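Study this protein:
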Amino acid sequence: MAKKAWLCAVIFCLQNPLFAQETDKRNIKTGMVIPDESYSDQPYIVKTNDGAWLCVLTTGQSHEGETGQHVVTQRSLDQGKTWTDKVDVEPANGPEASYAVLLKSPNGRLFVFYNHNTDNTRAVKGDNPPYKDGLVKRVDSQGYFVFKYSDDNGKSWSKQRYTIPMRNFEIDKNNPYQGKIQYFWNVGRAFADKGSAYVPVHKVGGFGEGFFTKSEGALLQSEDLFKVSDPAQAKWNTLPDGEIGLRTPSQGGGPIAEEQSFTVLSDGSFFCVYRTIDGHPAYTYSRDRGHTWDSPQYLKYANGRLVKHPRAANFVWKCENGKYLYWFHNHGGKFIKEHPNRRSMAYNDRNPVWIMGGVEADSPKGKIIRWTQPEILLYDDEPIIRMSYPDLVEDKGNYYITETQKDIAAVHQIDNKLLDNLWAQFENHKKAEDGAVISWKHQAEKFPVSVKSPAIDFYKRDAKRVDGGGFATRNGFTIDMVFNLKDLTFGQVLLDNRKPEGTGWSVRLTDKKTLEITLSDGRTQSVWSSDEGLLKAATDQHVSIIVDGGPRIISFVVNGILNDGGDTRQFGWGRFNPYLQSVAGEPQLLIGPKINGAIRQVTIYDRALTTSAAIGNYGK
């Protein structure tokens, strides 16, 4: 959809009273748009000393990487609702200026760091194939790393541009120019610590399939940038020490380690997480302010399970309350790592966005972060939209996240309750009560047991529309149950409200010893199952099946574990058909119509529970 048409649709929906019935603030189309020129990347924000939000964008009239790409800033005094004071940090008719990040000094001076094609190089050496004659015409990821500064809260920028010297690593010396031309870019948020400025940079070894063929992370540090009146006098170090940057784990790691995101823990340790093409994000800690780093590992949840993630930005933020948030996409594993085209296909599937909460814990080496299981944060109805490159802003007790899908950047206010429940996940042992429409516990009844079945609509006719069309309700429901089966033989049916023709929903055991939910309105059917290997026979099992009508996603939480596909599939969550109208079956739900065992309890909610609530139900 063209940008103008998209904006008109948003305005129409916000003015339409029926939109209140279908609004889901997680849908990125409900966000507040950040103006751009067409292409829109890295909408990063800092709060200035005069109370404004200053947003930097890499933008241009064409697509990413094409001529005219440049850096702009603009200000908002109303938390992203409107924007003024747009300034070209670099002009659109100059050499490419790209991938900018902001940093505010303790005295309020602002710095903007970015790639600059100062020599106006029009092609560099790459692989042949995929590039004709081995020449890459896209030149926005090489040149010089530069900065400008502002002393008026981002209303204007210094005329002079300052170049940061970057020490060559082994990866630079092995590029086609032996480091005389450096390949690099940056999306990592700059930060300050103990009076020093730190700016991430992602070094590149070559261009080929998947664009970057080899990459690793570094940190540029200046101990005196905030102290000198003339920024040209600032001294810079390239970290870590030596000639090897932040790479993937030595055992089985691939050649891609990029888009490093850093944060500082309460004891001064640095934490860094970054993307790979191994199906999992990598992370590491530094206990000496970036000079040396622990051996990189793949990121894990606090329960020990590996986090799945594709080749996409995965960012960490430290919040004002001392806790952490982590943006990622919750799929991958060996299905990316072992794919023959993993360099390219790993860029896909950035919708929805998931978020984890982090809390600090002690370790023999110092503070570490323990990560919760995730929640869906943002989504788009278009399943292959690729939203990414976010930033977090806290203002007056509220949380805002920016994102872009390369054409439209937007600001989204995040539900505080969602984040508070994330951070409380380790201590939550309370069963959710809000929205429970069935709360059944087995007494001495023989199976099957019949209870009243709730009807859930996902798409309804709009009586006010002349054309008879409808709207998505964004409704959802959750099935939460405890059962004990003597065996896991195929075909056992635990719950069923289907009519003879199949309309309604059911939960049964599959031939893979998983649970499967089937949804049908008589004309459209959707099916999804739990992960293999999680269910056990002859012991109580707790399962939550979350049918979320916002992003139209089904997810399973089995014995307190959010399913992520494990080693048998790339995705643990699945989409159901957007044309599914309802799951209104028989008026009575049968509990245990065909089982070898017993169902202890069933709770059905007329809403999609959060992951945190489902885990709380398990731990009650």
